[in-house]
Design brief:
Keywords: Apoptosis, Coiled coil, Cytoplasm, Isopeptide bond, Metal-binding, Receptor, Repeat, Ubl conjugation, Zinc, Zinc-finger. The protein is of the alpha+beta class. It has helices at about 10-30, 80-85, 115-125, 145-150, 170-180, 200-205, 225-230, 255-265, 265-345, 355-385, 390-430, 445-455, 560-565; strands at about 1-5, 5, 70, 75-80, 115, 125-130, 140, 155-160, 165-170, 185, 195, 210, 225, 240, 250-255, 440-445, 460-465, 465-470, 475-480, 490-500, 515-520, 530-535, 555-560, 575-580. It contains 13 helices and 24 strands.
Length: about 600
Amino acid sequence: MHRNGIGITGVAQVFWWLCIYRMDKSLNLLSLTSNVPASLQTPLGDPEFVKLPAKHQCLICHKVMRDAVMTLCGHRMCEGCLTPLLFDPQNKEPVHCPGKEEFCIELKPDEIRGDNGTRREIRKLSVFCTFKAHGCPEKLPWKDLMTHESQCKYKPIPCPHTGCELQCSEDKMEAHVKNCDYRPVRCSYCEETIPFCLQADHQNNTCRKAIISCPYKCDHGPGAREEIEIHMQTCQLRPQECKFKSMGCQFVGSERDMQKHNKDAADEHLQMITMYTASMDLQSMEMRRELQDISAERDTFQHIMESIQRDSRMLKDLVESIKVGQKELKLKIVEKTERIIHLEKKVDDSAKKEVVDKLERDVQSVKDRQISLAERVNQIERSGFTGGGTGSQQNLQETTGPLVTQIQQHDRQLGLQDIRLAELDLRFQVLETASYSGILMWKIRDYSRRKQEAISGRTVSLYSQPFYTSRFGYKMCARLYLNGDGMGKGTHLSLFFVVMRGEYDALLPWPFQQKVTLLLLDQDAGARHVSDTFRPDPTSTSFKRPTSDMNIASGCPLFVSHAVLETRTYLKDDTIFIKVTVDNDGINAQG
């Protein structure tokens, strides 16, 4: 469609070139630094300048300009500071020069230029060495700072002693290492190497060879710590606690003092024993009362547990009876379902090619006869009207009356034959779409309408087209109840698998024993299929060799609830997909 002589394609091309132009403008400023040689790029780092002139300071960040750019009005600033102002997506207003002088103008990306002269001057600005605090007196151009740092003799290095965190220049490190608190020294007693700052603590507390005296101040002379520790266990002056401490006596003394204490405090100890015994009797009485209370509570809990166990047995019996009832109900449902399927299949006729050909010949014969009769009626009518008179008309009516009735009968038969032909044509289309890989892919359109027909009872179930395990293998189909069947009626979609009578059943092993998987396909993410897999029961009549057009269906009355099915995951465009796969392993028939 065109409007004002410009087509939709032309408008799209114009929009495309405008986008490219806008991108070119934004890239213009961003590429100012990347396109200049390394000799003009601002050095890295944040050094201390000997003197930083105002003309070399950015108007935005007020620090030294990095990759200096210049506006048309002559102001200079960092490229990195100016770029966010020009390309801020939230700022819809024009960007004015940060100089804010009378002659300043609106800034545009394509009018910003890199100021190579200022960049060259900034690279030559004098700076102090980064290691000035460590004694380096050097002042040099900024561009040479990095080279100097790698060679500077005042560059701090870490102390080699473990535990020391000091860093200093190389010329000071030699003196520091000699006097470092963490320098290794050898213990004069045990010869163990330890840091200098821990030497005193080591000798006073942990050294096994250090010479110490008995801490109990006995007559034993000084000795190694390991010897004194053994002596302390048998020292006569070692403090001991009174054996009546648990009853309240707090006396502590040497072995000699303890013997004197036991004699002097015998009455006190006896009184402590009496009070302790009385206290223990009181505690014993309280414990007996608590035991009685606990015993009573235990009896109560035991009665409660017995009651719970009786109720539990009753509930188990009730559950078992419910399970038995459910099994009986399922058997009745299956029996009713089998009878319904047999009744429905007695009504259906299998489509045969010769039947269709015969019906087409019959219809053509009826059409030819109808045409002949119509011509004959026309001739009689013409002859009757040309003859004139009442008698001729009466003869005409007597002659044409039976013919008209016969034509009407033929019209009805022709209509029935047309309907029959349409049904047979549909059956042949189904046969042409049959799968021979053991996989059925069934697309059910108009889900809402078909479900409503199922609810109203008009079309309770749907049969899929037949599919086969191979060209000469088992013949099967699926049966679907959109409004559910049996236990799932009104709440679930019921899906069943049906074994049909095939042309090559005599070559196949029976009963049917292949694993069957039923799936409702996920149309959204493609990974949450609803599936159910079962292996046929060899004793079931559903999987014996069919003696009629199809066996009794077997499957899942509660395959999927309507609440789960009727979501965008499984129902899209009023369509669902059912897939049935049959495992072909172990089939002996050829094909």
